[in-house]
Amino acid sequence: MTATKGLEGIVAATSSISSIIDGVLTYRGYNIDDLASFATFEEVIYLLWYGKLPNENELAGLKAQIGEHVELPSSIIDTLKLFPKDANTMAVLRTAVSALALYDDAANDMSHEANLLKAIKLQAKTPTIIAAYSRIREGLEPIAPVAGQSIAYNFLYMLKGKEPQASAVDAMDKALVLHADHELNASTFSSRVTVATLSDIYSGVTSAIGTLKGPLHGGANEAVMVMLEEIGSYDQVDDYIQEKLNNKEKIMGFGHRVYKNGDPRAKHLMKMSEELGKAKGNLELYNMSVRIEELVTGQKGLQPNVDFYSASTYTMLEIPRDLFTPIFAISRMSGWTAHILEQYENNRIIRPRAEYVGPAGQIFTSIQER
Ligand code: ACO
Predict the structure, then answer these.
(1) For 5, which of 101, 130, 184, 336 is 20 to 30 Å away at the CA?
(2) 237-249 burial, b if ≥16 CB within 10 A, otherwise e?
């Protein structure tokens, strides 16, 4: 038994939800470039859950169901008010999503219909939790969403308390499409491991949020913004990055386990970052990011991943840095729940082996003799 570090190259499941083949990402066989250009996030959610793009009636039905479940139980709002105002936002989300199970009578109902309804509830409530906590920590009351509006619109509306610009809604929607699913990424894998014990869907997504939080996964988008803030201005980029590269430190937002020739999602976010910067008349963050890419790709051959240009994109949307990874979770909730439903449909407990490298043949001695 020989271990493969980080399970690199190990095929651990079959799935018909998304694929990465020769650097091309598809959801249910649709190229991510087409979905990013032409589909809304709600269409993508439907695609991931039901395996086909919705017609108009089906899409309206899904939107109505999401609208029906978007509000939080008052106990969850009360709980959010008890949290420290400076809490880690991914810890807040992980805790609140886990707590939702306590207010769902069907939390442990394992029928497909019950699990699908729970997926709808989780997808609907995740943006509400993030927006509500963001307002509560600023001493403001949470805002109810606008009926009939999209997830992207309502998230921005509930966050800021005013009608978002159409360009901001479009950019948010596209970002949600781009992050929705990604084959057997770390957080999706942990959600599948959790529910493969026949634990409930709330436990599965709670595991996933905890896994997404780390800076080697979803937490990288916030880490990129920390780096941009540390650099401060365009003229400081070269010195800062060169020193990091010389010290063999990691540059956040670069590299990927699967993509070695570039992440197909990054170009869309790069374009959004540029367009939003132009519209604001402030291309500093975009220009800094482009220069970082020139240096890192030029010297290390590493390409930017999905997280790199999301940092400047979300900043141009005036979103606080510590909500970047929670936004990733809003989007990936669709993929996690699709994978959890798929896991339940053809389940076998996930239980790999470890290569033992510890001592052997130890002689037990009583506690007095140690
Ligand atoms: N900056 C500098 N060097 C890097 C970076 C980076 N961002 N990423 C990889 N490398 C180097 C490694 O140090 C390693 O060098 P070595 O061979 O001299 O030891 C080499 O490139 C190969 O990298 P691995 O560590 O083997 O890559 P792995 O597949 O294990 O990790 C990961 C992939 C975690 C994404 C890594 O590239 C990384 O830490 N990137 C920065 C964090 C990040 O952006 N994460 C988001 C990923 S996308 C997502 O999850 C949404």
Answers:
(1) 336
(2) beebbeebeeeee
Residues 66 and 92 in one domain: yes
Question: What total of structural domains would you count in the chain?
Answer: 2
Q: Which range of residues forms the domain containing residue 262? A: 220-316
The whole-angstrom separation of Cα 285 and Cα 233 is 8
- In angstroms, what is the span from residue 217 Cα to ligand 1's centroid? 10
**Structure confidence at residue 106 as a pLDDT band (50, 70, 90):** very high
- pLDDT tens for residues 256-288? 999 989 999 999 999 999 999 999 999 999 999
Strand partners for 26: 19, 31
Expressed in angstroms, the distance from the first to the final Cα of the chain is: 33
Question: Both 291 and 325 in a single domain?
Answer: no
182 among known catalytic residues: no
26 and 155 both lie in a single domain: yes
What is the pTM (predicted TM-score) of this model?
0.97
Q: Does one domain contain both 159 and 226?
A: no
Residue 29 in domain: yes
Query: With the C-alpha atoms ordered 30, 33, 35, 37, is the resulting torsion angle positive or negative?
Result: negative
CATH number, residue 130: 1.10.580.10
360 in any annotated domain: no
Shortest CA distance to 209 belongs to which of 314, 322, 97? 97
179, 256, 268, 339: the active-site residue: 256
Alpha carbon distance 269, 283 (integer Å): 14
pLDDT band at 252 (very low <50, low <70, confident <90, very high): very high
Q: Residue 133's pLDDT band (boundaries 50, 70, 90)?
A: very high
Q: Catalytic annotation on 256?
A: yes
Ligand 1 pocket (Cβ < 6 Å) reads 6, 216-218, 220, 250-257, 300, 302, 305-307
Instruction: Tell me if residue 252 falls in helix, strand or coil.
Output: coil
Q: Token pair for residue 315?
A: 């900043």
